[in-house]
Amino acid sequence: MSFKAAAIQMCSGVDPAKNAAAMARLVREAAAEGATYVQTPEMTGMLQRDRAAARAVLADEAHDIIVKTGSELAADLGIHMHVGSTAIALADGKIANRGFLFGPDGRILNRYDKIHMFDVDLDNGESWRESAAYTAGSEARVLSLPFAEMGFAICYDVRFPALFRAQAIAGAEVMTVPAAFTKQTGEAHWEILLRARAIENGVFVIAAAQAGRHEDGRETFGHSMIIDPWGTVLASAGATGEAVIIAEIEPAAVKVAHDKIPNLRNGREFSIEKIAGAVAGGVAA
User: Which family does it belong to (predicted)?
Assistant: First the structure.
């Protein structure tokens, strides 16, 4: 059956309580427009580059304000509420970049810890080492919901097609990619990557993003998107500021796409051999 999905675009700051209030306001707006599944961005609860300052306000899952607010919103509005991710303090002193999906009764239906750590050095001097503070996840999941089979990813995960292919083969019809893409990488790759993951797997992709200049000085790309299995952008937001985008999701369109381009069925096992290149006097044997 079809359902209305919303992606919430935010510009999260350094205060989890303020971010929770902003999230609640935008989620209520989405629900008022008929959305029954609502997704927020990566790091909904806080974007803070100062790790000492971040650790000072982090909480474990049982005491986290974003988790508490997400559960309350889901139950109050009778929706499936997807906190794209928030930073959760772990017992060993490290942090989980963890997403939560709450059911209409407020219960946690799924947790997903970001698998791929953003350890990169960019041309503009930005350098990121998520693995220095965060514990990577190791488990991908496909969750059966009343309206669709849903797969989970977070931000940098979108650059790893095998994760999405495995979920598609397991039956996922909707892939979720909440993110806080940098401005530089977003301008170059954001839409291309999202549309590619939708097209190559014949699935819907819902990607709520952080957007604009944040209190900690970073700048994120925005452009939250909802994309259909043929790669068509059904809804998108701008480069900066808060936004609520909504699209009608028809899971039956996934089968239509798979019947047109049955690449999931047509995939074959193969071996790979590395051989020497051309040599003087002819081709290597």
Answer: Belongs to the carbon-nitrogen hydrolase superfamily. NIT1/NIT2 family.
Report whether pLDDT(127) > 90.
no
Please state, rounded to an integer, the average pLDDT across all residues of the chain.
Answer: 94
Instruction: Give Dmax (Cα) for the chain.
Output: 77
Give the span between the Cα atoms of 195 and 36, in whole angstroms. 23
| β-bridge partners, 7 | 39, 245
Q: Considering the domain 3-266 in this protein, what is its CATH number? A: 3.60.110.10
For the chain, what is the total number of helices (H) and then of strands (E)? 7, 16
Identity of residue 84: G
- CA 68 – CA 187 distance, rounded (Å): 34
SS3 (DSSP) at 68: helix
Q: Residue 2: which H helix or E strand, with range?
A: none
In which element (H, E) is residue 58 found? none
Secondary structure E strands in the chain: 3-9, 37-39, 80-89, 95-102, 108-113, 119-121, 127-129, 142-144, 149-152, 174-176, 204-207, 211-213, 219-221, 225-227, 233-236, 243-249
* pLDDT exceeds cutoff 70 at 222: yes
pLDDT range class, residue 123, cuts 50, 70, 90? confident
Residue 193 structure tokens:
């990557």
Q: Are 36 and 4 in contact (CB under 8 A)?
A: yes
Coil vs helix vs strand at 269: coil
pLDDT-above-90 percentage for the chain: 85
Domain boundaries, the chain: 3-266
DSSP string, 94-149: -EEEEEEEE-TTS-EEEEEE--S--EEE-TTS-EEEGGGTBPPP----EEE-SS-E
- Give tens-digit pLDDT for 30-59: 999 999 999 999 999 999 988 888 888 999
